[in-house]
Amino acid sequence: MTMFRSRRRKIERLDFILAGAQKSGTTALHYFLSKHPDITIGDQQEMHFFDNDAAFVSHVDYEQLHKHYPLLAPSTIAGDCTPSYMYYEPAAERIWKYNPKIKLLIILRNPVDRAFAHWNMQRFKGREPLDFFDAVREEQARIAGAPPPDARRFAYVDRGFYGRQLARLFKFFPREQVKVVKFEEFKEHQPETLGSIFSFLGRKPLRSVRSRDRNVVPYERAMNWEERVFLYNLFAQDIANVEQMLGWDCSDWKL
User: What domains are there in the chain, each with its CATH number?
Assistant: First the structure.
């Protein structure tokens, strides 16, 4: 037992981060990652270290991140799941300065559906007094003067412009260090998608894990056609940019 313990090591740097996008299956993926015997993702689901401005004012104390992780066995890799990192502008450079070799996992969902799911979650939590269309129309004014945590909370549309968020990540990280997964593929072809994610992380696939929906809240109502058309028109060019950047077919995201 003593010999086994002595082989365990203190974490020096995280090996990977599940960095976004919010309401795109990150909670489900976090669950599967947590079930892998050779992966640890710390003692809380979202560390919110790299989007905490106070931690980066002067000397950065990475121990404040690492203290959430146990001693690691030789075969264990460590990661964090904080979906706001993809969206919050300073996070990419902070992560790169921390570990330029880190691997990033990204899941992208139809931005129209993502926006509505985000609003619905805020409604469910009692944080959103406005109806969806009103919240979308007021979004820019609301986030303009708000501190970053509040601004992110109401950025229903802004979080869905994936093209510019990916461009920011690719400015710091080579493509081979970033795995981008389509939410709809993850949902429809879960075993295959999970297999490719574990392979990207250099780990064997899980033998079998019972799957169930996670972080699912009841919908107050459905999105109406006027709202869907309005949002699609906002996102159409960015969806085309994502298709070009990733070589994806996003026809299922279009009207």
Answer: 2-253 (3.40.50.300)
